[in-house]
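Final report, closing paragraph on structural work. Over the funding period we assembled a curated collection of sequence-structure pairs, and we close with a single example.
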Amino acid sequence: MEAGNNQYTAGIQQVEEKLLDFLRTIETHQEKMFVSRLAEQNAQLQDAVGELFGGLKTDLSNLAALSPPGGLQDFHEKFTKAIEHCANSYRFFLLFTGQESGMDFLKGRHELCLGKHLLYELRAELPILQQYWVLPDALPSLAALETRTPGLEVPVGMMRTEREDSRSAYSLYVPENYTPQKQWPLIVCLHSGYSRDDDYILTWLRAAKSKGYMVLSPKSNRETWSAIRLPGIAPNPALDRRSIRMMLEEVWQTYAVDRSRIYLTGFSDGGIFTYVLGLAYADLFAGIAPVAGRIHPAVDHLIRRGQGKDLPILIVHGGRDPIFPIEVTRQVKDVFVKLGYDVTYQELPDWGHAYPYSINETIVLPWFEGLGAKSKSPA
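Its predicted structure, as stored:
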């Protein structure tokens, strides 16, 4: 029996190593994706991952020949399911060849999201994969980051709250070592159009876990944020503004949130709504960081009257963005500067319009940390 246990453990470790390579490779693929180069980039992805998944099938077949040790049947089923989700995501990403197959990209994102959430749930039994969930310099502190406060009466870790009449659904990450004895900074991150809260929060998980931040990832009430026109539906910015405000109320009533260190960021359509929400509720946030977004007419009147002029704004944009041209973003930056707003501008010459894992970790988070706390907490 002991020999069987050792074989099973060794088999799991082989799969973990391949999964770690896959997660890192697929993450890089998403961040460097250009629609105009998808055929070339998909071929590179297939070269990097295709053989790996062939090996995974063999490893899983070998594991299937072994009975999971006592108590690991549930782990085995979830682990196998996570690998199936990862394999499905890879298949859908290869099917994404342009705008006409955009649903395949969204399906790939969702499958990867499901797989990652299962793997994160199982992380205690997957020591090789644990390094994926933290920044490299936090790895020596992993045990402390995972140590829960005795007697804690609120949930920690990754969680999702379903939609209610007064607000949309949202995902929330609370560090596993959370304690109510201190106040914790909070990052609000807004997903892109037609995306999901439980997906986009994963672009912030490593940074938040490593640096001690809570993360709130709201779901838009519609397919995208309510300030943005959809076919047959008029824009209504207040819809999602009220929804997110309700989410914040719920979070800080339950957890010890540092109200002077609440930060807002978003990607693409989420970057657009970062301007809308951030300037409308400038008193709530210590800083806002729209990534690959654009300015929205809903904030014109706010800017004209100087609302949020003291709110630090970080604008991050790719020089090769095919969705929101960089020339427009440069003009927006110039207008903010001319009107006396506190703007930091970061242009990334070789980046297009793709998922910002490393951008969140290496540009946005350090900028948030450099801001410190607001001089006065909102009431």
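The CA atoms of residues 134 and 206 lie 4 Å apart. Residues 137-371 form a domain with the Rossmann fold fold (CATH 3.40.50.1820). We thank the funder for supporting this effort.
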